[in-house]
Write a structure and sequence with these properties.
alpha/beta; Rossmann fold; six-stranded mixed sheet; ABC_transporter-like_CS; transport; Cell division ATP-binding protein FtsE; cell division
Length: 228
């Protein structure tokens, strides 16, 4: 589903964030991306949904090379890739329901389908009862669950999560992981960048470790491998 071939990313300031990466991620996998701060994880993640473009190489997602993708086609790509951020990125004046529905409204989904799909994903993230709440009426963990619901309401083939538990306490982090596992069980590919050593070492999944812009390890059931 996702393949990087000889990918490099050099920023204008001369920093080589990604330095010759080759990797393939199949449909339905759950992959952790780990590594020290500044290792290139965020750039690696951002290139998968075309927030960043590679300086060199190809990134193939469902047969489409993101390096050659025209800007006007990027929104179409992002309908098939959900993204969850550390800081939630919710619209503060919209309710929980409206935040999730917005992802369908912008692609002009049939209004008859919107309510059912929104309520289905809110039930999955256990927030159906707070559909009419505003983001500032929710806890951090609840806001992240709204962010997850919004990212999957389009039924994307892949979900990319950049430090999704970074601002959350341990108990809430495990609640988020349980939801990710359920989403993955239903067939969605998950790529999760994280510094959470306990989660990686407890919930065994494939681990891709990035150091100095290169893949240092790629293990089927790996450990975090770094000091906390």
């Amino acid at each position: 589903m996702i393949e990087m071939k000889d990918v490099y990313k050099k920023y204008p300031n001369g920093v080589m964030a990604v330095n010759g990466i080759n990797v393939k991620i199949d449909q339905g996998e759950f992959v952790y991306v780990v590594g020290p701060s500044g290792a290139g994880k965020s750039t690696f993640i951002k290139m998968m949904y075309r927030e960043e473009k590679p300086t060199k190489g190809s990134i193939i997602i469902n047969g489409i090379d993101l390096a050659k993708l025209k800007e006007k086609r990027v929104p179409l790509l992002r309908r098939n890739i959900g993204v969850v951020f550390q800081d939630f990125k919710l619209l503060p004046r919209l309710t929980v329901y409206e935040n999730v529905a917005f992802a369908l409204e912008v692609i002009e989904e049939n209004p008859k389908n919107i309510k059912k799909r929104v309520m289905d994903v809110l039930e999955l993230v256990r927030l159906k009862h707070k559909a009419r709440f505003l983001p500032d009426e929710l806890s951090g963990g609840e806001q992240q669950r709204v962010s997850i619901a919004r990212s999957i309401v389009n039924s994307p083939g892949a979900l990319i999560a950049d430090e999704p538990t970074g601002n959350l306490d341990p108990e809430t982090s495990w609640e988020i992981m349980n939801i990710f596992e359920e989403i993955n069980f239903r067939g969605t590919t998950i790529i999760m960048a994280t510094h959470n050593r306990e989660i990686v070492n407890t919930v065994k999944k494939r681990v891709i470790a990035i150091e100095s812009g290169k893949i240092a390890r790629d293990e089927v059931r790996g450990d975090y491998g770094y000091e906390a």
